[in-house]
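Example 3.2
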Amino acid sequence: MTADVEFAQPTVLRELAVRAAQLGAQTCLPEFTGGVAVVTKSSDGDLVTAVDVAAERAVRDMVLAERPDDSVLGEELAPHTGSSGLQWVVDPLDGTTNFTRRLPFFATSVAVRNDDGDWLAGAVCAPALGTTWSAARGHGAELETASGRERLPLNLAPSSARLLGTGLSYDAGHRRRQIRELATHLAGFTDMRRFGAAAIDLCLVAQGSLDAFCEDDLALHDWAAGALIAEEAGAQVLRPTGADPTMTARLR
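Structure, written as tokens:
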């Protein structure tokens, strides 16, 4: 195995994804209990803060310092184009509205894929929860907390409860349609949870804490890392396509 090939192994990429996601999350955390200036981006409820931008810059700087030939696509900054055939996808602050309301469900999400569209590694760090989820293609998924690391899915107590995670669009018309269709999506489930951060929702499917997740108005950066983590934990994952914009993850 050449040094270049080893440098791009999923397990090596996961290590960088974890460190980058944790750096981005720690950039956000000091501002969590303070007031931050909020800007509405494209519609009511779609918010951005200076913290989003600072976290994305921190993640990008770390990735490019170690892998200067890779590309980076983030939510807030202009794309960086490299020549290596690998692209990092960054959501610096998934759950910005939660963050501004001092709700702990927010995270930094970092994932990497190759030119063939294969997702190779990803990490989601939720600093207020003290939790990092990560995965490497073909090597499973894991949960990291102050107590150590655990393989996903977790060994949870058996229960008759079946929980669906979902989210709602910022667009009012789209949101009304989603609410009308909610009863159909809930068939076979006993209840639903709505945490306001798709990356965390997908990781909770990976844990086994949610039985499924379904949402049809997400951007690439929202699901890039979480989908791989759920998939590597054994969930059946369907990513959005041009024909069907729905992101679903379901434990088998």
